[in-house]
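Subject: complex prediction, re-run

Hi both,

The earlier run crashed halfway through, so I resubmitted it with identical inputs.
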Amino acid sequence: MTVAVVGAGVIGRGVAQAVLQAGLRVVLVDRSRDALHQAATAIRRGLLADRLRRPGAGPDAETLLTRLTCTSDLGGAGAAALVIENVVEDPAVKADVYRRLDAVCPPATVFLANTSAIPIAALAAATRRPARVVGVHFMNPVALRPAVELVRGPETGDEAVRAVEELLDRMGKRAIQVGDAPGFVANRVLMLMVNEAARVLDEGTAAAETIDRVFTECLGHAMGPLATADLIGLDTVRATLLVLRDRLGDERFEPAPALTRLVAQGRLGRKTGRGFHDLSARVHA
Amino acid sequence: MSTPDLAAGRRLLLRDFLASHLPVAGLADDQDLFESGHVTSMFALELVVFVETTYGVTVESADLELDNFRTVASILALVDRKLGG
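This time it finished cleanly. Structure:
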């Protein structure tokens, strides 16, 4: 079986890796050849790292990679039984991708919409197959997160959900079903938390490291809000906040100045080596 | 065999990397990194990325099976072999 993964960014790479590890063929699509090249390297490294963490039976990285096809032609998704969309968190861009996927994919192909905050109802409306559009929110790092949010749009059909659940099971992911609302559960709560942490920083109450220490040492969180933002990618965090602000009409989601400033400076977090924290020793694969 | 200076340089880079990624003081060269008790779930990937980008080598599945990533000493030996040094 072939799964198409559209969007070869940080999440797309992780999703492609997980699908390969499920023993399936992957067609990875991105309009940028540069992104595809980087993605292939990241996927290879991810497969090796996974084997380091969990030595065991199963095909090695080199074998799994023979099942990966990279292309900048969206038509490549036509051969897939399911398409996992992970393009940038921009409603207009996503709508355009879904319209084009609708044209190249047979009617039965299921679309997994991996969006941070856009309601599935809105994305499904950009297609002529709303019954076959299922929201699946993968979180970063995909290889290490055993669960995902699964969202049914108002017209999502049982058959599509079953197909998605089967795929997720093969990928070793548990599906936690939540309602179709902006930000679903994870980002509706987390984005505000990150944004408030950025405001705490702006107001000079504490330095970035200190803010995170309060969460890890006083509250037992695995990672503080600012380190979490760095992991997600500050551009994604900001884009998600804007989607939430617009859809909820709530000014609390207006991106904090610190966040806007860092994004403008190109300090996007782990993927650029610097974000709220200096991670120059920890470049994301 | 690489010259003493080259080997020392590679060792320093690796130990610097480990110092910022593993909160373990006084790490011995033959100490099992993955059993040091403080390895984060992201460490394995960070280590693979570090070795490839710092030493310019390509890690292969065969390298993993020989437990070449267990200790500082074994990682340096692997890099040495791959660079034909």
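The interface with chain B takes residues 45-46, 48-53, 55, 60-62, 141, 143-144, 281-285 of chain A (CB under 8 Å).

- K.
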